[in-house]
Design a protein that fits this description.
Elements lengths: L3 H5 L3 H14 L5 H12 L5 H13 L4 H24 L4 E2 L2 E2 L1 H27 L3 H25 L6 H25 L5 H25 L13 H4 L5 H9 L2 H13 L4 H13 L2 H20 L6 H15 L3
C-alpha cells in the first residue's frame, strides 16, 4: 500500500516551508479569530491539495514563491468552504473533532469562513497573481453550483448518472483541478499545459469521489463511518444510482420511499445496501473509477518522466486505493 510520506519525498522540504507560510497567512490581531484559526490549523488534513500544487509545479517548471502563494490560496479558500459547509449541513464534527460551529456557534463559524476567504483573496492580490486567483475563483464558483445542483436534484431523488457526474465534477473535482492548474500556472505561462493539468486534476477528482461513494458500501472500510450513512443522509451516490437504474418500477419506487421517508430505519437502510451489492452497483462504480484513473494516468504519461511525475502517478493511485 502506498503511503503519503513516500509520495511526498520530492516536495517534503517545500511542504514544510508551506506549513510555515500557511500558518502565518491565517494570523489575526483579533484574539478570538486567532484562537479559532489555531484550532483549524492543528486539525489539518493530509495535505493532499498542497501536494497536487507542488507536484504539478515541479512537473511544469521550478517551484517558486508564486507556487507557495497558490498552495496557500487554495488551502485558505478550501478551509473556508469546509467551515461554511459544516454550518449548512448542521454538522458537529470534522475529521473526528468538533467543528467550528459546534464549539463557537454558527455566527462565528460563518465569520471565520469569510475571514479565511478574504485572506486568500488578499494573498493573491499582494503578489499580483491574478491569473491564479482567476483559476481558484472559478473553482469556488463551480463548487457552489455543484452543491446547489445536488440540493435541487436530491429533493426528488431522481438524479441521473449524467447529473451525478456533473455534480461531482463541479463539487469535488473542480478543487483538485484548480490545484493542478495553479501549480503549473505558477511556473509556466503555457496555456496548453495549464489546460492539460486542469483536465488531469478533474479526472483524478472524479475518481476520488467515486472512491468515497464506495466506502458507504464497503464493510471493511476504515473511514469510521458506518455502511449506509450516505443513504441516511439521502445522498445519491453512483452505486445507488446504478441500482435504481437496474430496478423494476415497483422495486425502484420502494427503494426511493425508503430513502425519502425511512432513512433512519437501520433495517431498511441495510436492505438498500444489500440491494446495491446484488445489483452490481459496486462493480459498476469501481469500473468507472478505474476508467477515470486510467485517463488521468495516460494524460500524465504525455509529460517527461521525472520524480514529480512519478509522485503524481503514485498520488493518483493512492486516491483510489486508500482505505479512509
Amino acid at each position: 500500500m502506498l503511503t503519503l510520506d513516500e509520495i511526498k519525498k520530492p516536495i517534503s522540504a517545500n511542504l514544510d516551508e508551506f506549513e510555515k507560510r500557511f500558518r502565518q497567512s491565517m494570523k489575526s490581531s483579533v484574539p478570538l479569530l486567532d484562537t479559532v484559526t489555531r484550532y483549524i490549523y492543528k486539525r489539518k488534513g493530509k495535505q493532499m491539495r498542497p501536494m497536487f500544487v507542488f507536484l504539478s509545479a515541479g512537473l511544469g517548471g521550478t517551484i517558486n514563491d508564486s507556487t507557495y502563494m497558490a498552495a496557500s490560496l487554495i488551502e485558505l479558500l478550501h478551509t473556508a468552504s469546509l467551515v461554511h459547509d459544516d454550518v449548512v449541513d448542521d454538522s458537529n464534527e470534522r475529521r473526528g473533532f468538533f467543528s467550528i460551529n459546534a464549539l463557537w456557534k454558527n455566527k462565528i463559524a460563518v465569520l471565520v469562513g469569510d475571514y479565511l476567504l478574504s485572506r486568500g483573496l488578499l494573498l493573491s492580490l499582494e503578489g499580483n497573481d491574478f491569473h491564479l486567483l482567476r483559476i481558484v475563483s472559478d473553482a469556488v464558483r463551480e463548487m457552489s453550483e455543484g452543491e446547489l445542483l445536488q440540493i435541487e436534484k436530491a429533493r426528488r431523488l431522481d438524479i441521473s448518472e449524467e447529473i451525478y457526474f456533473e455534480v461531482i465534477r463541479k463539487k469535488t473535482a473542480s478543487l483538485i483541478s484548480s490545484c493542478c492548474a495553479c501549480g503549473v500556472a505558477s511556473v509556466s505561462s503555457d496555456e496548453e499545459i495549464i489546460k492539460k493539468m486542469k483536465t488531469f486534476g478533474e479526472l483524478v477528482g472524479i475518481s476520488f469521489q467515486i472512491k468515497d461513494d464506495l466506502f458507504d458500501f464497503d464493510s471493511e472500510n476504515m473511514t469510521g463511518k458506518p455502511n449506509g450513512i450516505d443513504i441516511k443522509e439521502q445522498k445519491m451516490t453512483l452505486p445507488l444510482i446504478h441500482m435504481l437504474n437496474q430496478a423494476g418500477f415497483a422495486e425502484k419506487r420502494k427503494a426511493i420511499r425508503t430513502i425519502k421517508y425511512h432513512h433512519d430505519d437501520p433495517a431498511r437502510v441495510s436492505a438498500i445496501v444489500d440491494q446495491v451489492n446484488q445489483s452490481g452497483g459496486i462493480t459498476y462504480a469501481r469500473t468507472k473509477m478505474m476508467e477515470y484513473r486510467q485517463k488521468a494516468l495516460d494524460m500524465l504519461h504525455s509529460f517527461p518522466d521525472n520524480e514529480y511525475r512519478q509522485s503524481l502517478e503514485k498520488l493518483v493511485m493512492y486516491t483510489t486505493e486508500r482505505n479512509k
